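thought: fold this chain, then report.
action: predict
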Amino acid sequence: MSDYEKLAELLFPDITKTPEDYEKIYPERGLSEGARVSRFAPSPTGFLHLGGLFASMISRLTTRATDDGVFFLRIEDTDKKREIEDGVSAIITGLKDFGMTPDEGVMGFNEESGNYGPYQQSHRKEIYQTIAKSLVIKGLAYPCFCSEEELNSIRAEQEKVGTPIQGYFSEWAKCRELSFEEQKANIEAGKPYTLRLRSPGSAENRIKFDDLIKGKIEMPENIQDVVLLKTDGIPTYHFAHAVDDHFMRTTHVVRGDEWISSVPLHIQLFKACGYRVPKYAHISPIMKEDNGGKRKLSKRKDPEASVSFYTESGYPKESVIEYLLTIANSNFEDWRKVNKDAPQSAFPFNLKKMSASGALFDLNKLNDVSKNVISVMTADEVYEKALIWAKAYDEELYNLFSKDEAFAKGILSIDRGTAKPRKDIAKWDEIKDYVSYFYNEIYTPDYSLPENISKEDAAAVLEAYLKVFDAADDKDTWFNKIKELCEPLGFTPNVKEYKKNPEAFKGHVGDVSTVIRVAITSRRNTPDLHSIIALLGNDEIKARLESALKEYK
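observation:
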């Protein structure tokens, strides 16, 4: 038995499996040639960030570009100090709320689906230690007994002599060349240790890789003897992700571009373990304008950084994903113009068309996109989605909507399903204000008139209209009655005539309609007024007209 083998047994006496055993447990997936397997692999250290949702969407779209691709969710929870309570649930809920439910992986609390689990790193300790043991046997890993004070002393000395880089490598790696006898003595004495990679890298060498978003990248080879296992036997992110991506048979690693600097190490780890290196796609961060400059969307500064902001505000999941697609591929908006009714899944997403520098987040643009999305929903869809949102976030609206479903759907049907539907609603928290004048419980009358209409003229219009209105009139009859009111009151039923000679009239038929609209809805701009009147009915309309008339008199 070699010294490396004896050291491996000393470090891992309880590990009896070999890497070959895990190759059998987690075989190749047997997918069609070219099928992509990708993952979203967050840490449960806070809320799901919009950038995380974006990354998961890109990862999922990458797999959907192939016939039987797989998108899975892995939870990287090895850093227990930073983990928050219910962090996993927040991630799963955030993904589910926006239609990013994975094909396999962590699906809920203590719930997994798929043949390549466990999908939480904290449950995979034996796998990592098995691979670590094999690296020790091959002479590619060794125990490091340096204390924090000794490591700080090394860094201080490196600063003093001005080494090009700082860290644990080459002659600075004090434990790298310890004899087996020294290692054994330290272990038997109970001295704490980490397990480090014995890097085969050289400062003179460079690595090249083709990033699917950034293009060709060349970087110095890794020479650091990085930590693989911490003193408690738990792996570092670098080591764990390489082992997991191999045994979960990941073909495409999609992640933020802050990880580009780690690619030389990651490639080295894959190769040291004897694994095929996956393809990399590094996403630029979502940016925000700030005081004339740009910065990353911040968890601390920006409420819109959390996906819960969109859920609580009531943005439909379709709207958020539609907007993210516009910043994912620049050609999405042109595609959408040509394919107005096509599902989002029909868009031919391409990693190579992603921005290499980072997309700019624009809440106003999201609102515009969302208005378009909601405008083409049916009244039934709007009602159901708004009701679900209201049940969680607005009890008053929920009670109003649920007490008379037909009436609520009648409101939402107005000007919907036409060639040019109105685009008044961007999110469900705007619904209550949008429908408020239909419900006396939340309606606050406001009889403010445009500057060009006096109270006296408004009163005259309402007095005349009260004599002729009928909520049962069809639209032509209703509008003809309004036009017939005009001339006796000094208005013209012809807008073009008014524009030619405005001094000859108090206003035109649109002004007369505005007086009636304000009296009934307290707004100057509403959906089709005839439909509003028909829905509210004779008694309610008469009461509102009379109330407004009192105000103007």
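thought: worth noting. Residues 33-120 form a domain with the Rossmann fold fold (CATH 3.40.50.620).
final: tokens above.
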